[in-house]
Amino acid sequence: MAQIAQMTLEYPVELPLLLKTSRAEFEAEVRFLAAAKLYELGRISSGKAAQMAELPRVEFLIKLGQYGIPAVNLSGDEIQAEIDTALGRETAVRGQP
Known about the structure:
Layout: H1 15-18, H2 23-40, H3 46-53, H4 57-66, H5 76-86
Helix pairs in contact: 2-3, 3-4
């Protein structure tokens, strides 16, 4: 199992109340949003992001949609390669016909 580090984040004590949530729910949301942003930027995998958010991977991917973040994080070239593979076509190597 991977080693886990811990980070402390300071926030105004009234913030969860202002957001109409409990302290635990607020902290879980902050954890999720940090993990989601790192995933969205392509800095970490969905598995690592789910681990950071303390959620099962499938639940993490579903929750991304609730925040308007695409669960599939592929470039245009990667999407085309996936389509070509699914259709049984060879994908041209970049820079070559």
